[in-house]
Amino acid sequence: MPDLYPTTQAPDSTYPGNASRNNANGTDEDLLDRMKVREICEGWGCYRDAAEWRNYRSMFHDDAYIATSWKQGPIDDFIEASKEGFEKGSSFMYILHRIIGQTVDVQENRAVSKMKVTITCRFTFDGVEVDNEADCRFFFLLEKRAGKWGVVFYTLLFDKDKMVPVNPRRTFAIPEEEVEKYPSGYRYLAWCESKIGSPPKPDLNAHGPERDILYGKCKDWLEGKKVQPNLTGKDVIEY
Fold first, then answer.
1. Using one digit for the tens of pLDDT, what is the confidence trace for 18-28?
2. What gap in Å lies between CA 135 and CA 157, rounded to an integer?
3. Of 76, 113, 126, 161, which residue is the least packed, with the fewest Cβ within 10 Å?
4. 186-208: pLDDT as tens digits
5. Residues linked to residue 20 through DSSP beta bridges, in sequence order
C-alpha cells in the first residue's frame, strides 16, 4: 500500500528566517504581539462554534479572504454561509473545532499563525449519524493596521481524517472506490461534503505540493510582499 501521509520538512527557501517566534529571538514587544495574535486566532473555534458572529467578525480586517474545504470567499460571505449551514441542520454538517495549540511568527507589522486543530463534522446519511474527525493545520495571515491586528487571509491543510459512528450499533457504508479519488488528508470529509452538495476544495492536502506553495506564501507575507489567493495553488483568484 502506498504511503498516503508522507511528511517531510519544508524547503529551506520557505523558512522566514527574520521573523520572531517562541522566545528564541525578538523583543518583549514581539512577545506581546504574538500573544495578541494567538488570542485572535483561537476565536475561530470559540466564537464560530457558538455562533458569536459579532465577536467572530472582529477577528478579521474588512478585506479578509477565507478558504475552507467547503466555502471560499470574503469574510462576510463566509459568515453568511456559516449561518445558513447551522440553519440547514442535519441536511448539512454540524461543524465544531478542538483547538490543540499554535505557533506564531511575527515580522514587523505582519504575522502568521499555524494552529493545530481537529475539526469534527456530524453528518446524517440515511438516518444514520456519523462524525468525521479531521486533524489539520489552520493558517492565519495577519496584519497590524492602525495599531490593530486582524486576519487578512485564512486557509488550512488536512493531515488525516476518519469516520466515527455516533451509535456503534448503527453504521453507514462508504464505498472505498469513491473515497480514494479524494486527497489523502481529507478523503472521507471530501466524500461527505460532495454528498451534501458542497464540492470540496481539492488542494488542501498536507501531503501534496500545496504544502510548500502555502509555506512559501507565508514567508512572502511576513516579508511584506503582495500575497493573494489561491494560497494553496498557483492560480489567482479575484474577489
1. 999 998 888 89
2. 9
3. 126
4. 999 999 999 999 999 999 999 99
5. 106
